[in-house]
Amino acid sequence: MNFLQRTPFFRLLLPFIIGIILYQFVELFQWSLYIIYGLSCLFVAVSLLIRVPKRQYQFRWLFGLGIFLFMMALAYSLSSLHEKSDVFDHLHQKGVYRVELTSAPIEKAKSYLCKVKVLQFFDTSWKPAHGEAILYFQKDKATSKLLFGDRLMIEAEFTPPEKALNPDGFDYAAYLKRQGVGATCYISSGSWQMMDRNIGFSIRRESDKWRNYLLGVYRKFNIQGDEFAVLAALTLGYTDDLQPDLRASYSATGAMHILSVSGMHVGVVYIVMAFLLGFLNKSQRQKVFKALFIMLFLWAYAFLSGLSAAVIRATLMFTFVALATCFERKSQIYNTIFMSMLAMLLYNPNFLYDVGFQLSYAAVLSIIFFQPIVDKLYNPTNKFTKFVWEMFSVSIAAQLGTTPFTLYYFQQFPNYFLITNFIAIPLSSLVIYVAIGLLLVSFIPYLSVTVAFLLKWSLWMLNYFIVRVQNLPYSVWHISLDIKQTIVIFLAIFCFSGYYFNKKFSTLFVGLVSLLVACIFNLQTNYQTLTSKRMIVYAGQKSTHVNFINRNRNYVYSTDSAEIERIAKAFWQNQKLEKPIYIQNTNWVSDGFVYYEGSKILILTRDFLKNKITSTPIELDYLIIGNRLKPKIEQLLECVHPKKIIVDKSVSKWYAQNIRQTCNEHKIEFYSIAEHGAYVLNIKD
User: Fold this and answer.
1) Which of 119, 143, 290, 470 could form a disulfide with 98 if both were Cys (CB 3.0 to 4.6 A apart)?
2) pLDDT-based confidence at 297, cuts 50/70/90?
């Protein structure tokens, strides 16, 4: 029996994933979907009506084709329904709304973030409204006391989330859209009022209450700072207290998965419960009770950790594992994983685009497939050596399946991931066990203090080790893949894996060709970089950033180097550019005037031309206005005469519109970065 015959859920999952992807790139009319559904039913019916054994075998493909088409069409339909149900119907309408909080407030640097469901809109009278939004509340004491389920009356104007405005930038709009959020808004302190509280039962609200109670237990024992942040993330999935530098440390060492309650953490709970209930193995009835108890504890842990998508995903997967083990079908682990994946995608097709979803399933499948192969490479006899080798083999196996994803999304590879996982995974497991112990004995005076001390010591050791590994030389290898390279590298991994088992030359050939194609794509990117000259004006929030690219040399004019590093780093790495050279204080720039590849450019970040007079205006190719300036454009044009004016995102909408009108009057080209995204000028030799 081959792999496809042993994994029927994979045969259902594959066309379903194709249908989800198809929805993103191809628009099908409703009648064409009806035709696909009709054909699928016809193929299945014909295959079932054939009674002659020889004909049944000859046309057995009809049933499979029918199911394939049905699952693909079903995925397309569910994706469409999910998108339509998330439409926000009152964009750009300033007025009074009634909203209900669907998440507890999350404290940010300058605001509180809340996810809300819009209930009503006032337009001469209260009318029903639909949609979910992200609200950013001005920080005050009243906002900090808001709870899940609170209903507010707000004065607001909802706007769509910002799309990616910079090359290779993060598409915040697409990210929120896949979470069902269609709008955002900033709410000042005087623009909202508490109405009432939703007293109906909500499992999410109860989950938040219990998680906040357990976080309070940690705080009671004076666990603070980075130790509290890691403990809360590690055990309860609460990541709001994680500081950026701590996140960067865990990411650079390959330990970021530890801070996300997911497969590893749910797996620890599963292993502990399976061990404690090991005596229930004498009869089939006892095994059923054991599976039910394990599932109860798994979902209780998911409930306490906030019922995030990652936790639900892992819990669902281990639920199926518990059921399969109960009926002694451990060999069907692949089918179990594909079953849980299909169940998640049936609930929400957009989970397919979630980075956590991709990484967690890639890691699990990779460990199951590659770990036995890697483990056979060395067969130690000593127990300790065997334990160490098993840790290494699991880490290597997980890395094989997740590396293409991490290079695509994060543009870095942790070189010391083996060292990190060898120490960090046992330490983090110890933290989980001790944290469970603290929660169980928190009411016992002296014992709880002793356990809390051990917990704080374990957390300090974990953080200290992570930072030390990050500071090792060459701890991170910066490399990036585009979507084409990622696909062909995964194809190569699949082909080489297939060759390991079937020893067919065709699979080896396709794998080698895939690697060759990936190299060609990389050479193509290098060639484009080495033959291109560009000027890019980025979309910064409050600052001005202009990038001059001369082949692989990278020159930057910026009023905020930290912001430009954040918004342009991915683009620089993807284009294989050198480290940026800042040119504010060089002979490149004089009072913002730049001469680059035959173009005269003025980057106006301070109003030094105010009330200045020239006999003849200075001829310019480009005038870039930024840094939140509010220039009098008519006076400015008495000093300079540009062919094109570029207004960056930091300039207010009102001033940008005023500049646009003046440009139209003077027949000058105008470009708004806030409307159209970063301005990219490709210069030809």
Assistant:
1) 119
2) confident
